[in-house]
Amino acid sequence: MLAEQVAFSVDDIAAIVRKIQDDSDTVTFSLEQGDEEVEKGTTQMAATNTTFQSN
User: Fold this and answer.
1) pTM listed for this prediction
2) How high is the mean pLDDT of the chain?
3) How far apart, in whole angstroms, are the C-alpha atoms of residue 6 and residue 4?
């Protein structure tokens, strides 16, 4: 009986850890995409600035 409870607890803990890892992966992916968008925006702003300064 105790062994079964421990086994269920271990399974629950493993599921929680997997969920945390999945959530961390999702956050990492979102942050990376956000960073790419910021870089694109920065590049576009620099190009726009150059255009306005050359006129």
Assistant:
1) 0.68
2) 95
3) 5
